[in-house]
Amino acid sequence: MKQQIESLRANIGKLMQHHLSKDDFETVTILSPLLSRVQELQRRNTDLDREVSEIETTLKTIKAKPASQKVAELLPQLTTDYEDGKNGGRRSCPQTLKIKIDWKANKRDRGLEAICENTAAASMAHFIGRIIQEFGNDALQKLERIRINRGPLLSKTPVKDFVNQAQGKLYGHKKISGSDYYVLTHSQTSQKIEDLNRVCRVIGLVPGSVQIEQVNRHAWLDELLN
C-alpha cells in the first residue's frame, strides 16, 4: 500500500508539472485535490503503522505474564500511554477540530450542530461551507476578502493563489462542498482555530455561539473510557 501511494503521488506530481509548464491551469486545478487526497492517505498510512507497532509492543510485554495479569494490565497500559503521550500517544496522535455551532443564537432556524471530520482541514472546509450555505453571497464576499498567513482564505484558482513561490509547490487546501471555492488549509491546527475564530468575527456571528477546539482523532476512546 505504501508503494502504491508513493507511486500515485509521483505520477500526479509529474502531471501537474507538465500541465503547469503549459499554463494549463484548469487541468492542474483538477489534479490538485487528488494530490491532497494522496497526501492524506500517506498521513493515515503512517498513523496506522505507528498504531500497529504500539499494539504489537504492548502485546509482547504481557506475553510472559499470567492470564489474570494480562486482563488486569492490558487496558490500563494502553490508556496510560494514550493519555500521557508515551510511545506516540496523545501528544503525537493526529489532531482534528471539533466545532459546535449554536445557529439559533445567530437567528437561524437550526438546532445545535457539531462538526468533527477526520482531519482539521476537512473540519475547516466543512464549517466554511456551512457558513456559505446559511448566509449566502453576503458571507462569501466577506470571506473572499480575508487573507491569512500564506495567502487568501478562499480561491477558485488554488493553482494560482495557493502557491509557495519559493518552492513552486501548492499549499494544502480543500474543496468547499457545493461551491467552486477552495479553502487554504496549510497551517497547524492551532492556527486553523485562530483563522476560524476570525471568520466568525468577520461574518458577525454572536460571540460564544461557535466553539472550536482541537481534539485528537481518536476522541471516541475518551468517551468509551469515561
Descriptive report:
This protein has 226 residues and is of the alpha+beta class. The chain has 2 domains: 2-92, no CATH class; 95-225, Replication modulator SeqA, C-terminal DNA-binding domain. 56% of the residues lie in helices and 15% in strands. It has helices spanning 2-21, 25-62, 67-84, 120-144, 158-161, 189-203, 219-225, and strands spanning 95-102, 112-115, 147-148, 151-152, 154-155, 163-164, 169-170, 173-175, 182-184, 210-216. The strands form 4 sheets. A 3-stranded antiparallel beta sheet has the order 2-1-10, with helices on one face. Strands 5-9-8 form a 3-stranded antiparallel beta sheet. β3 and β4 (151-152) form a beta hairpin. α1 (2-21) packs antiparallel against α2 (25-62), α2 runs antiparallel to α3 (67-84) and α4 runs parallel beside α6 (189-203). The radius of gyration is 21 Å and the shape is flat. The model is unreliable at 68-91 (pLDDT under 50).
Search tags:
226 residues; alpha+beta; Replication modulator SeqA, C-terminal DNA-binding domain; 2 domains; 3-stranded antiparallel beta sheet; 7 helices; 10 strands
Short description:
With 226 residues, this protein is α+β, with helices and mostly antiparallel strands.
Listing every helix as H and every strand as E from the N terminus to the C terminus, the arrangement reads HHHEEHEEEHEEEEHEH
- Average the pLDDT over all residues and give the rounded result: 80
Please report the number of helical segments: 7
In spatial order, strands of the major sheet run 2-1-10
CATH topology of the largest domain: Replication modulator SeqA, C-terminal DNA-binding domain
Largest sheet: 3 strands, antiparallel
Bulk shape: flat
- CATH class descriptor of the largest domain: Mainly Alpha
What fraction of the residues are assigned to beta strands by DSSP?
Answer: 15-25%
- Rg, rounded, reads 21 Å
Report low-confidence residues grouped into runs of 5 or more: 68-91
